[in-house]
Every structure is written in structure tokens, then in C-alpha cells.
Structure to design on (210 residues):
């Protein structure tokens, strides 16, 4: 994993292949098959958190503790989601890990004064690692308990494992301009290669008959 971690440390935020899905899926999509672990280092995690600005409480300098906490939630989320998508019961270990993460930094409402008056905002009194893990685990819980969880799909490109929740039933690719185009181009070349092969065989048969 050292190579992957070094790559993640040098990876700009724009290199994450798919963001903007439900937060739980964005978390799982940090481990695409070809690229390895995009949050395998604190620098990679920091880049991903910048992509998630506004969805998670800011963590200015994620370190080893935050990295371990996020990886633990991701591992539990992966097992639980694989079961839930098929309509099966997630393992007790996965649910216990997610519950423990949420319990370590329970949310509460805190009154704050804003330019628009009083507001009651959600807050968590915990260290950054526990707070981050709790927020991610809660996002996983939201997806697991959503009836649409069984609609989560994996990209149909042969070498892609990214997950998405389709907004329309015809969506087949994680990113149409990436995986979708690659598959279409591959099919085009395969089809034309087959046509050229058929023409070559027909030409050879014609010569033989002559």
C-alpha cells in the first residue's frame, strides 16, 4: 500500500473519480480498484475532505488518528452496504462498529446567535477523529435505512468498481464522460474489427473460388 499512499499524498482533490453521491458512497468510492486507496495517507484524506466541504465538520489537519477512524468506518460501511443492497441483514460486527462510532460523538443541538437571530445547530463535543467518524457513520446509517439503498449500483464498466445511486433508471456508468465513453469506444473498435475480419474472410473465399 505504500505506493498507493504516496500517490494519494500527491493527488489533487480533482483526481477523485466520483464525488457528489450520498456521502456514504463517496466514502466507499475512495478505494477504486485501479487507483488503490485515495485516502491511504493523511494528505489524501485532507484532499478528500476538501471535496466534501460543507458536508462534514472541517478538520484542518487530519492525522493518523483521523485516518484510522475514517478507515474503520469505511470498512464497516463496505460490509454493511454490500448486504443491504441485496436486501440482506448486515453483519453484527459491521453494525456494532457503526454504532460505536456514532456513540463516541453523539450529536446535540446548540443555540447560537447569527445575523438572522437565534439558531439551533447540530454539534458534537468530541476530538476531531471521533467527530469525523461519527458524522461519516451517521451518513452510512442514513443510506442503510433509506428504502433506495437497494437501488445502489456499481458502474458497469468492466474495470470500475465505483458505486452510485442513480437518479434515473437508465444510468449505467459512474461518470458517462469517462467510463461510458471508454465502453462505447471499446465496443466501436470491437465491432469494426469484427467487420474487417468478415470482409477479409469473404475476400479470401472469393479468391479461392476464382
Amino acid at each position: 500500500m505504500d505506493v498507493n499512499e504516496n500517490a494519494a499524498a500527491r493527488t489533487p482533490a480533482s483526481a477523485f473519480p466520483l464525488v457528489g453521491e450520498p456521502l456514504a458512497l463517496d466514502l466507499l468510492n475512495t478505494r477504486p480498484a485501479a487507483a488503490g486507496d485515495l485516502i491511504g495517507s493523511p494528505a489524501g484524506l485532507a484532499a478528500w475532505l476538501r471535496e466534501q466541504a460543507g458536508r462534514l465538520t472541517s478538520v484542518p489537519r487530519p492525522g493518523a488518528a483521523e485516518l484510522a477512524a475514517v478507515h474503520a468506518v469505511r470498512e464497516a460501511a463496505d460490509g454493511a452496504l454490500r448486504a443491504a443492497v441485496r436486501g440482506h441483514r448486515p453483519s453484527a460486527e459491521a453494525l456494532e462498529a457503526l454504532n460505536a462510532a456514532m456513540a463516541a460523538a453523539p450529536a446535540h443541538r446548540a443555540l447560537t446567535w447569527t445575523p438572522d437571530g437565534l439558531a439551533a445547530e447540530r454539534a458534537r463535543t468530541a476530538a476531531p477523529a471521533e467527530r469525523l467518524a461519527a458524522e461519516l457513520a451517521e451518513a452510512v446509517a442514513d443510506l442503510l435505512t433509506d428504502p433506495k439503498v437497494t437501488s445502489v449500483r456499481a458502474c458497469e464498466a468492466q474495470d470500475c468498481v465505483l458505486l452510485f445511486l442513480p437518479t434515473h433508471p437508465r444510468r449505467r456508468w459512474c461518470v458517462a464522460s469517462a467510463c461510458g465513453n471508454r465502453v462505447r469506444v471499446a465496443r466501436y473498435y470491437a465491432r469494426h474489427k469484427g467487420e474487417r475480419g468478415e470482409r477479409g474472410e469473404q475476400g479470401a473465399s472469393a479468391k479461392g473460388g476464382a
About this structure: The chain is about 55% helix and 10% strand. The longest strand covers residues 107-114. The helical segments are 2-10, 23-28, 42-51, 64-85, 92-104, 128-144, 176-209. The two ends are 62 Å apart (CA to CA).
